[in-house]
Amino acid sequence: MPTISMFYGILVAMYALDTEKHHLPHIHIRYNEYKAVLKIPDGEVLEGDFPIRQMKLVQAWIELHQDELMADWYLASSGQTPFKIDPLR
């Protein structure tokens, strides 16, 4: 699973050809022992659990990078490697 961004200890990844389970554009996030799957471009939680503070950071990052995330989703859903996206600063 390619990591497309990393900030404040949060890893953001997007699997290639990951359309079977969720059927919607989404990202996978990890922070310590927490994992979640968020829909893009709105940041809705599809699965998992995440600390509130870190979730707000990820959702702000999604808001800033909606277009890039959707472009990466189309690449990944067709089997291509998604591009890296700038971290939240």
Automatic annotation (TrEMBL):
<protein>
    <recommendedName>
        <fullName>DUF4160 domain-containing protein</fullName>
    </recommendedName>
</protein>
<dbReference type="InterPro" id="IPR025427">
    <property type="entry name" value="DUF4160"/>
</dbReference>
<dbReference type="Pfam" id="PF13711">
    <property type="entry name" value="DUF4160"/>
</dbReference>
